[in-house]
Design goal:
With 649 residues, this protein is α/β, with parallel strands linked by helices. Helices cover 34% and strands 19% of the residues. The strands form seven sheets. Strands 11-9-10-7-6-15 form a six-stranded mixed beta sheet, with helices on both faces. Helix 4 crosses helix 5 (116-140) and helix 19 (620-627) crosses helix 20. It starts with 20 loop residues before the first helix and ends in a 10-residue tail after the last helix. Residues 631-649 have low confidence and may be disordered.
């Protein structure tokens, strides 16, 4: 017998021989839609133990990619498994809607010089369109969720909630205005968050520059000499010639040993261990005639090589004696955090700090020699001017890792501007600083995998104050009034913020931008300026626990602003995990989550992280159209394919 199938006793089913998932999965989703299964499940689970996974909002710009799919499906697996285990485990998806990428897209499409309110309207419209496209793709993935009622950071209630979150932090004393160097992108025309900065190779001009001594007698005494027999100078090394016009001090390490080297025409001050390599680099020969510890040079003044001003020595422990350097650092307090802190500690006032670089990267017109020039283009001219005055000891191009805007892929700088900050070391009502609260919160959080705890701990332990202000149109406003004479906040700031929040809750953020101050301040309006800065988008997403998870919100829960789990990629240690931790600790005294789960990234054939900005992504829509969701994501994910609500179809 050749037909063996007739000898087998097998069950008969109506199952098709082929899965045909690209065709059948949409039919299954439509069936779940008709049955309204998500809301029926919510009813069945009412009163059961609550499990809340708070959704980290994806940005409302562009189509979803494989990374989005991995993130949503992992959340789907966890939420569905918790429901099957007897928990009430809702899933409320969200979207991050404000910020520069959307504003930039609108400017690209409609032009840069739009009237502000028109630009905001177009941004809101564009974000809404992007959300609809992404929502449809997430539903096609079969992800369970309240797709009919997601939260969006641009919803009026959420914009108002964000203002109230800021008011809570103002009330706690964590918010202040200050002049500090912040990451600044010329293309964005705004300050950047730490998470908006990435590092890439950049070619720079490395230069050694001589600063002639002004206090010759003090320099001689520091080396134990009665007098200097020749002109003397200290030599600095830098890879940012554009900062030299803003130099206001020099830094030496108190514990290093420095040498006075006779090179024939003049005496040079260099760190002792690098004398030989420095002379070789300068093409000079010389003899060490004296040495002295760095602490002996505190306060000795040198002359700026280009301008008629002095640069005193300030001792600093961050000075390094790496090969290729000189052991002396030039300090431009407007363009470096260490420089800024050291100069301020030595009594330099905000008014005394020189900041010739404007927001577009161009030197102010009144800067001698280089006014009106873009700093990157001015670099070669600065080098030549230093050569012309006899101050350039050496020049060579180098390639090194340098800060870049993750959005524009262009170099960014530190730039001192007046911004609003959340103070990491400001003491709260219980006497603890925000940093201390956050570090304690990390210890109380469960991390999966466990290494995430040390990573986030290190970031919080070493991070500077958080710059929360931006100079954009499309963002939640910082609704402050500042006294024109004193620069102080209005004494009724918290009350005024609540009034602003109520207006925003009804009319959106335009309510603040179109507000006549007299409507809230009356006759006082003439004495106050209305702040028009907007909040950092990480503040947007980082405060969603305040106005999405609380019981008063349509999606709020009895457990209050604490989720059982946040789940995102490992980059969110710098992003959403980070900002949520700080705002949660500032507002409620504890993190807004009990657990953090970190997943990895999808990578391309070269092992590089897939990202829209790199253009190396794979569209999950194409995968599903060809293989279906279940085959694409594995048996377990397919078996847990959830449903979608009728209202979202």
């Amino acid at each position: 017998m050749s037909d063996y199938k007739h000898t087998l006793n097998l069950p008969e089913t109506d199952f098709p021989m082929r899965g045909m998932l690209p065709k059948r999965e949409p039919e299954r989703l439509a069936q779940w839609d008709r049955l309204d299964l998500y809301y029926r499940l919510r009813e069945e689970r009412r009163g059961k133990p609550l499990f809340v996974l708070h959704d980290g909002p994806p940005y409302a710009n562009g189509s979803i990619h494989i990374g989005h799919a991995v993130n949503k499906i992992l959340k789907d697996i966890i939420v569905k498994s918790k429901n099957l285990a007897g928990f009430d485990a809702p899933y409320v998806p969200g979207w991050d809607c404000h910020g520069l990428p959307i504003e930039h897209k609108v400017e690209t499409t409609h032009g840069k010089h739009l009237e502000a309110e028109r630009a905001r309207a177009l941004c809101r419209e564009y974000a809404g369109e992007q959300i609809q496209g992404q929502l449809a793709d997430f539903v096609r993935l079969g992800v369970i969720g309240d797709w009919a009622n997601p939260y969006r950071s641009m919803d009026y209630a959420n914009e108002a909630g964000e203002i109230r979150a800021l008011a809570d932090m103002v009330a706690a004393g964590y918010v202040f205005k200050g002049l500090k160097p912040v990451n600044w992108c010329f293309d964005c025309g705004s300050a950047l968050a730490e998470a908006e900065v990435e590092y890439a190779d950049k070619q720079s001009d490395a230069i050694d520059v001589a600063f002639p001594v002004e206090d010759a007698d003090r320099l001689a005494a520091a080396f134990g000499l009665e007098a200097l027999a020749k002109p003397a100078a200290v030599v600095i090394w830098t890879t940012t010639p554009w900062t030299v016009p803003a130099n206001q001090a020099l830094n030496m390490h108190p514990e290093f040993t420095y040498a006075l080297v006779d090179t024939g025409e003049r005496l040079l001050v260099l760190v002792e261990e690098l004398v030989e390599s420095c002379l070789a680099r300068f093409g000079l020969t010389g003899e060490v005639i004296a040495t002295a510890p760095g602490e002996a040079f505190d306060g000795i003044r040198f002359r700026h090589p280009l301008y008629d001003r002095l640069s005193p020595v300030y001792l600093a422990d961050y000075v390094e004696a790496e090969v290729g350097s000189t052991g002396i650092v030039h300090s431009a307090p407007a363009y470096g955090m260490d420089d800024f802190v050291t100069c301020r500690e030595h009594g330099m006032t905000f008014e005394e700090i020189l900041s010739p670089v404007q927001g577009n990267g161009v030197y102010a017109d009144d800067l001698p020699f280089f006014g009106g020039q873009m700093i990157w283009k001015a670099n070669p001219q600065i080098v030549e001017k230093l050569r012309e005055v006899g101050a350039l000891m050496h020049h060579e191009p180098i390639t090194h890792s340098y800060m870049h805007c993750w959005r524009h892929k262009t170099p960014v700088i530190y730039r001192a501007t007046a911004q609003w900050f959340v103070g990491m070391d400001v003491q709260g009502r219980d006497g603890k600083t925000l940093r201390e609260r956050a570090l304690e919160g990390i210890e109380a959080t469960t991390f999966t995998p466990a290494w995430g705890q040390a990573r986030l701990h290190s970031m919080i332990a070493n991070r500077p104050d958080w710059c929360i202000s931006r100079q954009r149109n499309w963002g939640v406003p910082i609704p402050f009034f500042l006294h024109k004479a004193t620069g102080e906040l209005h004494p009724r700031t918290l009350e005024l913020m609540e009034e602003a929040a109520q207006r925003v809750e009804k009319e959106g953020i335009d309510a603040w931008f179109r507000l006549d101050p007299a409507e809230l301040l009356g006759e006082e309006a003439a004495d106050y300026d209305k702040v028009t800065d907007t909040l950092d988008v990480w503040f947007d997403s980082g405060t969603t626990h305040r106005h999405v998870l609380r019981g008063s919100h349509p999606h709020g829960h009895e457990s209050g602003p604490v989720a059982d789990l946040y789940l995102e990629g490992s980059d969110q240690h710098r992003g959403w995990f980070h900002s949520s931790l700080l705002t949660g600790c500032a507002i409620d005294g504890h993190p807004p989550y009990r657990g953090l789960l970190t997943h990895g990234f999808t990578v391309d054939a070269q092992g590089r992280k897939m990202s829209k900005s790199m253009g190396n992504v794979v569209a999950p829509q194409k995968v599903m159209d060809k293989l279906g969701r279940s085959m694409a994501w594995g048996r377990k994910a397919g078996a847990l394919s959830p449903w979608m609500p009728a209202a979202a179809s």
